[in-house]
Amino acid sequence: MKRSLIRRFRKIVGPERCLHSPEDLYAYSHDCYARGNPELVLLPRTREEVSSILKLAHKEGIPVTPRGAATSLSGMTTPVRGGIVLAMNQMNRILEVSTEDRLAVVEPGVVTLRLHQTVESVGLFYPPDPASYSISFIGGNVATNAGGPRCLKYGVTRDYLLGLEVVLADGEVLRTGSRAVKDVTGYDLTRLMCGSEGTLGVITQVTVRLIPKPETKRTILTTYRTLEEASEMVSRIIGAGILPTTLEFMDQAYLRTVEEIMHLGLPTEAAAMLLIEVDGFEETVERQARIVEDFCRRFHVLDVAVGRDPEESDRLWIGRRIGTVGLMRSSKFMISHDATVPTSQIPRLVTETHRLAAEYGIKLVILGHAGDGNMHPIFLLDPDNEEEMARFHRLSREMFRITVECGGTLSGEHGIGLEKRPFLNLQVDAVGMRTMRAIKKALDPKGILNPGKFLDEEPTSPGR
Amino acid sequence: MKRSLIRRFRKIVGPERCLHSPEDLYAYSHDCYARGNPELVLLPRTREEVSSILKLAHKEGIPVTPRGAATSLSGMTTPVRGGIVLAMNQMNRILEVSTEDRLAVVEPGVVTLRLHQTVESVGLFYPPDPASYSISFIGGNVATNAGGPRCLKYGVTRDYLLGLEVVLADGEVLRTGSRAVKDVTGYDLTRLMCGSEGTLGVITQVTVRLIPKPETKRTILTTYRTLEEASEMVSRIIGAGILPTTLEFMDQAYLRTVEEIMHLGLPTEAAAMLLIEVDGFEETVERQARIVEDFCRRFHVLDVAVGRDPEESDRLWIGRRIGTVGLMRSSKFMISHDATVPTSQIPRLVTETHRLAAEYGIKLVILGHAGDGNMHPIFLLDPDNEEEMARFHRLSREMFRITVECGGTLSGEHGIGLEKRPFLNLQVDAVGMRTMRAIKKALDPKGILNPGKFLDEEPTSPGR
Question: Model-level pTM?
Answer without folding.
Answer: 0.96
